Every structure is written in structure tokens, then in C-alpha cells.
Amino acid sequence: NTATPSKPLYLGLDFGTSGARAAVIDDEGRLVQDVKRGYGDGAAADWASAWRRVLYELIHSLDPAVRSCVTSVAFDGTSATALLVDPRDGTPLAAPKLYNEAQAKEVVAAAKALAPPAHTATAPTSTLCKILGWWLGAAAAAPPPLLLHQADWLAALLHGMYGSGISDWNNALKLGYDPETESYPAWLAEQPFAPLLPARVVAPGTPVGPLEPRAARETGLPPHCLVCGGTTDSIAAFVAAGVTEAGQAVTSLGSTLAVKLLSTTRVDDAAYGVYSHRLGDVWLVGGASNSGGAVLRRFFTDQQLRELTPRLDPDRPTGLDYYPLPSPGERFPVADPDLQPRMTPRPEDDTLFLQGLLEGISQVEAAAYDRLATLGASPLREVLTAGGGAVNPKWTAIRQRLLGVPVRPAAHGEACYGAALLARQGARQ
After folding, report:
1. Is the N-terminal amide bond of 333 cis, ω within 30° of 0?
2. Domain Carbohydrate kinase FGGY C-terminal, which positions (predicted)?
3. Phi, psi (5° rounding) for residue 219?
């Protein structure tokens, strides 16, 4: 996927759950080249080594003419994936803790004793719980280790400033960092493990520093190439969609349904799993439902979905009023761990049944945006769609009717493209 490079170019690197992708864009935002790599079968035995190897593989697989024009680079990584490193050279001192690794009950209890009630950093998978798990497990060594998120560590492999402990607003949120005051709150800064926290937390896309000479030699990137502040994978995907104004939102229609809305007001409500990331001078308010594409998979194959979709009639609602869930329990837009799926009665006509399910998921989406408005977020004006559901025009028509605002596919949905936009932003600063 290559076009002729025009200088300067910007590189975004996305390290996801199963593999990594790189996107190179030009000043106009055109995609010049993109490449991807899996981590390989043995990755779980040593995640850090796999990430480092794939980082170099991705960069080396770029066309030499493209690589030589890369002016800046930015990373995104999975949220709350973290590792302890030696501040002298970045060597991992313990196996990384991945985004979905819930910590022990006593660790979560310790986090809840520190943080304000219902803080997002007290979730069992949060980075705060992970650093507490290491600390309580006496992982402290000489010299004292440093905590870095996945994206922080990968960026440090290029800029070489390990000891500075550089992170970004979005990755540091689940550590307890407050992006509104741009500081760690007192309840966190006063802890005995506070010296392990990243000392410098920057806005995503902030220029951090040039490549260290060794990294320039090993990657073939220009020595003057600038490393910029990164973000998390879901925020990078949101940035990729090109949303810029309050009231614009992105719905991700994957196996689950996630909504993110740009708002002038910060909204946090742990009861619904709703919290806000800072993006420039506005807030990115998000929540996720358990409803989504995974429910469709229970009833239909890809082939059946392709055959049935043309028969859907968005202008004639079925009136079935489903609440499609893969299993009991919902947290947003309804906070009810015992909420039962509602997918009966099932009509004999599969087309009607599919349309009923799609209407049900769309009603959940509409209720999600209503909930954000009730909590104080900016009113919804437009929805861009990412994920597999974005390519279904009949479903889009159903959603537009229920949401009452324009709905269109996002031009770009890949997190690596969003990271490349942050790299471009950094170079322009």
C-alpha cells in the first residue's frame, strides 16, 4: 500500500493486542504506506522482547525512500499495559502486565483505600493496581525501578530518555494522573511508590525529543526524526476518525458497542464506566455497552448476514424492542449487573429477526448518547462510525433514524493513522 513520498512524512505506530501496525502519512494526511506484523507464537513468553522485535521489523519494512523522509513518530499502545524498567537503560525488570490483567482483590482494595470513591484508577485492570501489585510484592530493586506504559517504553527505545519517565495524559489516566490540573493528585504524589511514576506527563502529540544516535542507526530513520507524546489505542482510533468539534462522536461497532463524544464538559461516572480523556482543550467522554456484533455472531454466519442485509427495510421498524446482550449484565447505558438479554419473541422470518437485533443495538447506542447528555456532556450533533458495522448502509439508516443526527463512516478507523496524525501535530509544533 504505497504512494510516492513527498517530504516531510509522519509515522504512527500502533501496538494492539494481537499485533502492530505502522502508517506513514504526508502533510495532507494522505496514507503513503502502511504495514503490519503479528507478534508471533512465542510472544507471550516474553512480551517486551516481542514488542521490541516487531518495532524494528515494522520500521525496516517501510520503503527506504519513505523511511528517509520520516520527520516525526508517535506511538499508541493498549491502555493500562505497563512494565517496570531499569531507569538507566530501559531493561524490563519484570514481565509486563497486560491491559486485561486484573489484579488481586487485596491490591484493588489498597487502590480503593488511596483514591477518591469510584475513581477509574481503582478498576482491577488499572495501571494503579498494577504498580501497587508490584510494590506490595516487593519488586523494588536497586536502582529503584520506573513504571512505563507500553507506548512510553516503545517511544523510549527511540529517544533513549529512560530515566526521565515520560508518558502522556491518556496513558497516565488509569494511573491516577489528572489531565485537568496536569499533575498527579496529592493522594497519589504522597505515596511511597510515587518515585516509580513517570515524572513527565505530556499532551498527546507533544514533541519529546529526537532519536538517540543508536536508534537512528538501527532503524534507518533520519537522526533529526522527532519522537512525540503518544496515546492509547482507542484514543488513537478516535483521532483517526477526524473528529474535531464538540458534539461530534465516534461509535465503534465491533464485537461490543463503544461510544466516544467530544465535549466541552468533563464527565466521569464510575457507576456507568464513563470517564473523560483530555484532547487538547476539550474532553473525550466515553462509555461501552456489552451489546454489539458478538450477539449477531450467535445467530448468523458472515454469509447469512451478507444474504439477509439487502432484504432489510430501515423505513419499516419491526417494533420488536430487543435489548441484545451476549449474556446477562450491562454497565452502560444501564448499570445493572443482572440485566437479562431481551431477544424474544423470535419471528420465523430471519430478515425480521436480524432487523430487530440491529434496531435493538441501535436503541442501546441512542440510549448511550442520551445518558452522556444527562450526565452533562455536550449535545450530540454527528456520529462517525468505525468497526465492522460501519460498512452496512441499511444499519446506518436504522441508526440515523433512531439517533436523529447525521451518521457516516469514519474516513480512517485505524489507530496507527491516528498516531501518525499526532506525529504530524508534534512536528508542526
Report:
1. yes
2. 251-423
3. -95, -25
Q: Which domain holds residue 148?
A: 9-234+416-428
pLDDT string in tens for the chain (429-residue length):
555 555 899 999 999 988 999 999 999 999 999 999 999 999 999 999 999 999 999 999 999 999 999 999 999 999 999 999 999 999 999 999 999 899 999 999 999 999 999 898 999 999 999 999 999 876 555 678 999 999 999 999 999 999 999 999 999 999 999 999 999 999 999 999 999 999 999 999 999 999 999 999 999 999 999 999 999 998 999 999 989 899 999 999 888 899 999 999 999 988 888 999 999 899 999 999 999 999 999 999 999 999 999 999 999 999 999 999 999 999 899 999 999 999 999 999 999 999 999 999 999 999 999 999 999 999 999 999 988 888 899 999 999 999 999 999 998 989 999 999 999 999 999
CA atoms lying within 13 Å on the CB side of residue 284? 23
Dist. CA 216–CA 160, nearest whole Å: 11
> What cell numbers appear for 130 in the block?
498494577
Does 76 fall in a domain?
Answer: yes
Within this chain, do residues 122 and 224 fall inside the same structural domain, yes or no? Answer: yes
The SS3 of residue 25 is strand
Dist CA 380 CA 420 (whole Å): 27
- 135 and 260 share one domain: no
Closest by CA to 334, choosing from 291, 294, 298, is 291
- Euclidean distance between CA atoms 397 and 210, whole angstroms: 47
Q: DSSP label at 195?
A: G
How many independent structural domains does the chain possess? 2
Whether residue 211 sits in one domain with residue 265: no
Residues paired with residue 37 on neighbouring β-strands, in sequence order:
20
Residue 394: count of CB within 10 angstroms of its CB: 17
CA angle (264 as vertex; 258, 267 as ends), nearest 5: 55
For residue 196, tell me if it sits in a domain: yes
Q: Is residue 168 part of a domain?
A: yes
